[in-house]
Amino acid sequence: MKTKRMVTLALMIAISVAIHYLESLIPDITPVPGFKLGLSNIVSLFVLYYYGGISFIFVTLVRVLLAGLISTGFSVSFFMSLSGAVLSIVISLLLYYGLKTSIFSLSITSALFHAIGQLIAYALFFMTPYIFVYLSVLGPLSMLTGLLSAVLVRQLIIRIPYSLLSEEKKRRC
Amino acid sequence: MAENRNIRSDNRLHYHPLKDTLVILFSCLTVASIVLISLFTRPVSQNSYVEIKYGNVLLWDKDDESKETRISFPETGNKVLTYLRSDGPLFLGEGKFFDFYSTNEEEPTVQVTIYADKSIQITKQESPRNVCAKMDRVYFEYTPLVCLPNSFQAVIKSDSGFPQWDN
What we know:
The structure holds two protein chains of two kinds.
Chain A: H1 3-24, H2 41-51, H3 53-70, H4 76-99, H5 103-126, H6 135-159, H7 166-171
Chain B: H1 2-8, H2 17-40, E1 48-54, E2 57-59, E3 78-84, H3 88-92, E4 109-115, E5 119-124, H4 131-134, E6 145-147, E7 152-158
Antiparallel strand pairs in B: 1-2, 1-7, 3-4, 4-5, 6-7
């Protein structure tokens, strides 16, 4: 891994953890278990489009790990977050490399499956299959936050000077 | 600017009406299916009771000597069940305490209120986002009140078998 790439990815992780922390200070829009705006996913999505799948997996998983360490430790919340992240990574990569869909459907679908992943972890931990009824609320909310992330990342990609990351762009598939 | 045009022309930054709509539709259908299965496989309401869990351990009303984990609704008014951190040994075994989250020096506590109108509410608990206490009263069966990271859960259940179709 080139130094520039390493430093940039470290910076991306730091930004996403900082956003994750700042987001925890925002009051809840709706009291639904597992719901967050997921603003730190903006960084992950940005990394996917600029640096490709491997960096995307790396940044997302390290962010989940660090955010878990900073906030609640390795509790159920951490495993919910990890499960959601893993499922959304799989879906994102499938849509990015396989179906080659747009950033909008990728982000919306990824947000939806992130919510499903979180609930799967909860259902397994507490042997509570009924938790999935919350998807009726989490689903539409996740779609909205997914769309918001897509719009923001698209703007970031368009507005950030290409020369800043040009070396990486050439290697991107 | 010429370089910027390269990024802007990335096909994946633009909405593809057919492909994207189909993907979003498929995702929505997946979510809708999961929700419908969860809703329709909930047991039929008959004799309902409250189940309170810490992790995977079923808790009972401390005042109930029979240690019945199917906690019944009161005939009138409400019943308040308080679980302190120090109550851990009673439910978890000697020397084990509830690992409730707390930011102050008071003893971490989770309080569940069970109402005669067959609803439940988490009336006291502490956590970073305090989601379960904000959820207010829940009347629906099999809709858990979830307290994280306290690993605490309260849910209304019924005697009927699982799964069954709602009437």
